[in-house]
Every structure is written in structure tokens, then in C-alpha cells.
Fold this sequence. Notes:
Elements: H1 15-27, H2 29-36, H3 47-63, H4 69-78, H5 85-99, H6 108-136, H7 140-152, H8 184-189, E1 199-204, H9 210-223, E2 227-232, H10 237-249, H11 260-268, E3 273-278, H12 286-298, E4 305-309, H13 323-340, E5 345-350, H14 372-375, E6 378-383, H15 386-391, E7 395-401, E8 408-415, E9 420-423, H16 429-466
Parallel strand pairs: 1-5, 1-6, 2-3, 2-4, 4-5
Antiparallel strand pairs: 6-7, 7-8, 8-9
Helix pairs in contact: 1-2, 1-3, 1-6, 3-5, 4-5, 6-7, 9-10
Amino acid sequence: MIDSKEKVSLSKFGKSFQEDLVHLILRDRPFADQVSEVLDIGFFELKYLQVFVSKVYGYREKYDVHPTCKIMASILRSQMDDENDLTKKQVRDYYARICGTEVEIEGAEYIKETSLEFCKKQKLKEAMVKSVKLLESSSFGDIASLINGALNLGSDNDIGYDYKADFEERFMLKSRDPVSTGWQEIDSLIKGGMGRGELGVVIAPTGAGKSMVLTHLGAHAVMAGKCVVHYTLELADTVIASRYDSCITGVPLKDLTIFKEQIYDKIQLLDGKLIVKEYPTKSASVQTIKVHLEKLNSRGINPDLIIVDYGDILKPINNKREKRMELESIYEDLRGLGQIYCCPVWTASQTNRSGLNAEVITMESISEAFNKCFVADFIFSVSRTIDDKATNGGRLFVAKNRNGPDGIVYPIFMDTAAVKIRVFDHLDDSIENIVKNVAKKQEERVVKNAREKYKEWRSKDKKKELN
């Protein structure tokens, strides 16, 4: 026999569970829509949570818009006259805890699933109690309708971003939590560094120092207290780790053994964490990396930055007919990886032969698949001629930037012996001349190719005439 008067609440799940559930209702509009169909405010055992939820849904009902933390602050200041002083204080203290800072909710999916299951069971019980009375009058159609209605309550009804209902969300400041590149000039272009879920690509020809650049990016993140996971598919993990030693301490690579003790003491003071994982070339795919990251996650290691050295030599998850399509798929999967783990991803790409001696490398020189440029958020190239390598010079060209200006050339200092890379201010006269020279050379190359094709065509035409 079902007791319709039985007192039910979420008390068995504990106080923190209920607080996190209310936090999710405020922060996650689609979930708030879904749970509203089955949630009874009386399920919360704590008065201040009941009041808080009632204010959220009251605002939604009146204005047909989901409230933000800013809106809730106004509501809690002006619409609490009916509550006693203790409840007012508890509600406002709770608001300060969940909206004062960017708080991550651990086990959010578990809380959603468990609370929905609990509430749906209560709605089903209510429907069954009502069905007992309908059974006496043989109202089988009404019973079926009642039970089916209860079963469908609380189902996933997220239709996506609602232009009207989610109006306030468009004006909320989004936290990118950027990871610095270690170069102030570049950080200023991309709003402090690479943000969550963003993909950065370094373009350079063979021997120009792609791996060195990726090591620099990782080392500065570690020094900033971040957790970096560095995947290497060309070099040994110990070689990569040694490059981090040199970049972090300033000790040249050839002298690392001499200063072993000093290096050890210095890296012990770092707040950041570094994991280097080695895979043989073309043996690992993005799926392989996902599995490894899940293992790290199970041990409490969550990346703030993922580096893949480098994307072009990953194995595609699905084999395609053409290599360019495989590469495009790999880069799409890499960006998806950053979105899954809410952190930036850096990788590198090889240039084609035209980039070997280029003074400034543009995206036209990217190897195999130009389409991989489409998914990247930030792309820069590193070009170093023979003379540049002799003088530790070079150029960094910002080819693509979704968060700011692009098309800018920066002179750089690059000492590969100590993994030391510096970026200098742009707009130098010599750099402007380089850009002009590059444009002139590209124009001359186009004219030369056209002339050669014309000669080839004339030669074939003459042979036809002779035949």
C-alpha cells in the first residue's frame, strides 16, 4: 500500500548534495527546466535552500528568463522581507559561497542523475496513488494517461540555447582562464594567453625548432603553477624533460649533467606539474591520448595545458582516402580534446618545401592539409634562415588569431642550446622591409611560374606542328 502522506525529502543525500543541486539549478538553465517538472521545493530539508530555489523559479515564471548570479543578488537584497533574520543570513551566505568565485561542482552529472531519479520516483508514486481511485471507476484510459504523463516528466528537454530564455547568459563574463605563452607581446594579442578548449598551432619547417617552441610554452605554464601534459611522438621523454630543465633553469643543454644538483633543487620549488608521455611515431591517436588522460584523471591529475608534439604524426582515429582529410580530422579531434578537458591544446605542424628558406612563413606553406588551419584558434609560424640560425635570430608571424589582430611579424631571439626564446616588439623598419621583400619575391615567383608554363605550352604546341 502506497502512503500518500509519507514525508519525503533529499535529506538522505546530505547537506552538500542539496547545496550543489541548488547551485546547478541556478547555473544550468537546461537542467533547471528539466528538474522543474518533477521537483517539489519541499524536498529540500533546509529552509534557506527552499527560499533560494523559490526565488529562482519565481523570477523565471515572472520574466520568462533564467536569472544570473547578478540578478539573484538584486533579488536577495530586495525580496526577502517575509523571511526571518536567520533565514536571510543563511540565504545570503549561501549566495556568497556559490557566486562569489568561480566554484567547480564536483560530481555534477551524478547529482543531476540522482536528484532527477529521486524526484521522478515521487511523481510516479503520486500518479499511482491517484490511479487507485480511478481504478474503482474503471477509468483505464485516464489511468494510462496519468502513469504515462508521470513517466515522461523530467525527461531531457534541452532544445539548445534559447535566444530569449537565456538572454542574460550572453552578457555574463566568461572565464577563459588563459595559460600564458611566456611572451608578453603574444599574450597581449590573445587576451592573456590560450583559453579553455582553444587550439594553438606552431608552423615551422623541419629543423626550425617546433619542439623547442612547444617546450617553451609548456615550461612557462609549469613555472606559472599549471599542470602540463606533454605528448612526444618524435623524441624520447627524457630528452623532452631535459629541455624543460634547460628552459626552466637557464642551464645550457650541454651542461645539465654538471649542474644536476642545482637543477634538482630548483625544480623542487615549482608549484606546477609536468607529465611527459612518449609514444612511437604514428602509433598513437587522439583516442590513445584520451585514454591516457582518463588514467591521469583517476589519479587526481587534471591538465591545465595539453601539448602534442606534433599533430601531423598522430595516427588518425578513422582512416580516410586522402592524407589531407586524415590530418584535418586529427586537428578537429585535438580541438575537441581541449573542449572535453577544458584546457588549451598546443601542437605543431610541418611546412612544405616552400617554407624551408622563407623569411616569413604564411599559412600557404602549411604542409598537406590547409583545412587544419580552419579549426585552430591561434596559429603562428617560426621562420629561421641559415643566417638567422647563425645569429640566434628569426621571425614569428601571427597567421591567425580568433581573439585579436593577426598578420603581425615579430623578430625573435632563439637560442636552441639553452631552449631560450624571446619575442621583441614588432613594427621595426627592418621587419617591414622583410614583409615587403616577401611580397615582392612571391610576385616574382608567380611571374616566373607563369613564364615557365607558357614556354612548356609553346614547346608542346611546336611538337604538334612538326608532327
